[in-house]
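Weekly structure sync, notes
Attendees: PL (lead), two postdocs, one rotation student
Agenda item 3: pending single-chain targets
PL asked that the sequence for the first pending target be pasted directly into the notes so everyone works from the same version. It is reproduced below exactly as submitted, 173 residues in total.
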Amino acid sequence: MAIPLRDKAASPLRGLSPLPSSRAFHAGLFDLEAEGARVRRFASWLWLAVPVVVAAAGCSPAVPLPAHGPIASEELVEVPFPPPPVHVEIIPPKPKGDVVWVDGRWDWDGDAWRWFKGGWAEVPTGAHYTPWKTRRDASGRLMFSRAGWRDKAGHLIDSELDHASCPIGKVAK
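Predicted structure, written out during the meeting:
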């Protein structure tokens, strides 16, 4: 038994494409004026959608972050255990000026992990920021690189990251 084909006019997908089918175009089975009206309706909807998307992107709550770069291998230090989980911080409103948000970070002082709160900071000239990181080397030792502003070679430079700290996890001696 043959299954009857559905009428194209009754198709729920009819009218969604902004262009006529090539078969209908070459057979002359479409009304150019009606097709032009459909294309204009589609284009008018599209032109309404584009400004909305652009406006929404401009209103995003993006926080300016510093550029990241390399870390010199001699900047890695061995640590006995990984740091605790990061602290959740609420980012205060951005002050005036050319500043970036520097996330809170763990630092190893030789005896304990210390947490330094995040804050807004000015980017030193010619520097990039590297967040703290732990990784295991080939022998299985846990290596730590501290967060900070670095030069092009990846070496820490002196900078003012004067956020409050709190010690955690002292090593017993």
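Discussion points:
- Residues 52-60, 162-173 have pLDDT under 50 and may be disordered.
- The beta strands are 77-78, 99-102, 105-108, 113-116, 119-122, 128-130, 133-136, 142-145, 148-150, 165-168.
Action: rotation student to compare against the earlier draft before next sync.
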